[in-house]
Amino acid sequence: MKKTEMVSELNRIQWKCHDMGCRVPISADDSEARDAMAEFCRLKVEDFYDIHGVLGSGQFAVVKKCCEKKSGLEFAAKFIKKRRSRSSRRGVVPEDIKREVSILRELRHPNIISLHEVYENDTDVTLILELVSGGELFDFLAHKESLSEDEATEFLKQILDGVSYLHCRRIAHFDLKPENIMLLENRAPKAHVKIIDFGLAQSIVDGVEFRHIFGTPEFVAPEIVNYEPLGVQADMWSIGVMTYILLSGASPFLGDTKEETLSNISAVEYKFDEEYFKQTSALAKNFIQRLLLKSPKERMNVEEAIHHPWIKPKDKHQLLHRKLSFINLENLKSFNARRKWRLSLRVVRLCNQLSRAHMPKAGTEQNHASCTTHMVDSDCASGDEDGLTMALDRLPRETRAVHMDACDEAGAQPSLNGAR
Predict the structure, then answer these.
(1) Which of 117, 105, 110, 164 is nearest to 311 (CA)?
(2) 190: annotated binding-site residue?
(3) pTM for the predicted model, two decimal places
(4) Residue 57: its pLDDT value, please?
(5) 344 vs 260, 338, 380, CA distance in Å?
(6) DSSP 8-state class, residue 70
(7) CB under 8 Å to 32, separation ≥6 — which residues?
(8) Residue among 139, 150, 161, 175 flagged as catalytic
(9) Widest CA span in the chain
């Protein structure tokens, strides 16, 4: 199939998925569509796009701004390094890239980043993605002078709308956190939320049990910590954590160590400190409480969350109360600064560890510059997944997940358009 024919077919498939509605996915019998969606273009991406400066980077990916030569439209090109062998720890497993692409190709929603094209060569897969350049939502909010709950729920509605679209297709994101909630642009009259980074996303199949240890410790659900069957409800827990942080500028389960954080999550140990929640409405607290429940079955699902009276007030009294309740913006600004600082420290710490690990032994002739280059090219931008697994291994037996093979790292760098 020629490039132009493939792009046309992919667009037809995407619009077909959009037009048929979220409860009617593409039929499994549509083999022509499935074949088209499975193909990556083997032509040079540089022949069709002008590649510009770096927008963001992660452990195994770099995102650059690009411009389509034919249309003049701007996109983000995400260059993902492929893992070359089973024994290697460098690069992303090809099957994981294919899964991410397969999921992105199913999605067409205003609050979810969209995939335009996919290119592949021997070393990289390049995703041509919608350009999401407005920065993180939390950064945007932290620069405001004041923020009412009424204004905050407008952003949460957009997040819930995007998650609803995913969940009605039985797709779980599994990595909802502030870094992955972006704004399309920061100069628009009304901020437009985009959910990005589908590197951990999974299609949930009825009757097929899925267990895994992954994600960012601060935001993972108890069922991930305890290595229990996973489903879309894990995303609702993460939304509860983000809402708690948004309202208070405090993190509900964050401990001094990863082990303590995971223990707090497993025990669902959190509280609404008056210091942080003195301006918070009772309905907002109820919204969080109905999400931060240990049992996935007891948590609100996304449709229940959308219709919760805090998100969709039932009367004028509820609406007025929401307008008169305010976010602890001063503390949110402090939280956001600490979050950025922790991410920077994590990279520095990992680089130092790798520097020691790869430093030539005394008396050897190995070139120091090449050693440093190897350090930077390997794991200096490592994510949280290995740390999560090691932390779980040190938890008490009753809260520890069963032993697993070492997980592939999931990038924890601040991401733009989903840089791993």
Answers:
(1) 164
(2) no
(3) 0.76
(4) 85
(5) 21, 10, 11
(6) T
(7) 9
(8) 175
(9) 77
Helix pair angle (94-106, 31-38), 10° resolution: 130
Distance, in Å, from the CA atom of 169 to the CA atom of 286, rounded to the nearest integer, reads: 27
Over residues 282-326, the pLDDT tens digits come to 999 999 999 999 999 999 999 999 999 999 999 988 988 898 888
> How many angstroms separate the Cα of 110 from the Cα of each of 79, 130, 377?
24, 11, 35
Query: Among 121, 249, 107, 116, which Cα is nearest to 170's?
Result: 107
Q: Is 29 a catalytic residue?
A: no
Q: Which residues 6+ apart lie within 8 Å of 39 measured at CB?
A: 1, 6
Q: How far is CA 77 from CA 3, 4, 48, 100, in A?
A: 17, 19, 12, 15
pLDDT tens digit string along 79-108? 999 998 877 888 999 999 999 999 999 999
Burial of 290 (0-12, 13-18, 19+ CB in 10 A): middle
- Taking a C-beta distance cutoff of 8 angstroms, is the pair 84, 141 a contact? no
